[in-house]
């Protein structure tokens, strides 16, 4: 029952698809830290929720392993073409807003013991306070990325109903809420 409730909440709050997966399905690799260090997105060292500030990769991967389940969800957006950087950016921002809605929706069901990861940098603020030498403005709401925790999204989603690529002129973003059991299940 809990799985269906979580999936329903994700879909009602903007996810296009969602599925609960077991810990064993989550594929991780420290190589994702090297990808972050190459700074292709421009956030390395410039966002509190991104490396190196997110933490040491092996400790973060161990933290992921502490949760037996994950609510994997995705948003799929149409863009003009594969060079539509503006469309990709807008879609990423929209995904960040969906992630915030999902966070608020699932917390009452799961209680406070979750780890919520989303795509790319946090995107909660237009400009991360780190760039101005300030502390995080929203530490209770800021969400780190799946990749910063070493999660291989492609291989994690591979054997699920969520596809990594969803057709020509689309961009797909993922998020995952890691959890143990729901609050009502503990009573």
Main attributes?
187 residues; globular; single chain
Topology, pairings included?
Blueprint: H1 2-12, E1 17-22, H2 31-37, H3 57-65, E2 69-78, H4 85-110, E3 114-117, H5 153-157, E4 170-179, H6 183-186
Antiparallel strand pairs: 1-2, 2-4, 3-4
In short:
By secondary structure, this protein is an alpha+beta fold. The chain is built from 6 helices and 4 strands.
How would you describe this structure to a colleague?
The protein is of the alpha+beta class. The protein has six helices and four strands; from the N terminus they run H-E-H-H-E-H-E-H-E-H. It has a four-stranded antiparallel β-sheet, covered by helices on one side. Helix 1 runs antiparallel to helix 4.
Helix content: 25-40%
Per DSSP, what share of the residues sits in E-state strands of 2 or more residues?
15-25%
SS-based class: alpha+beta
The total beta strand count reads: 4
Global outline: globular
Unreliable parts = none
Main-sheet strand order equals: 1-2-4-3
Rounded radius of gyration (Å): 16 Å
Name the quaternary structure.
Answer: single chain
Distance between the termini: 15 Å
Mean pLDDT: 91
* Major sheet characteristics: 4 strands, antiparallel
Q: Helix segment count? A: 6
Order of helices and strands: HEHHEHEHEH
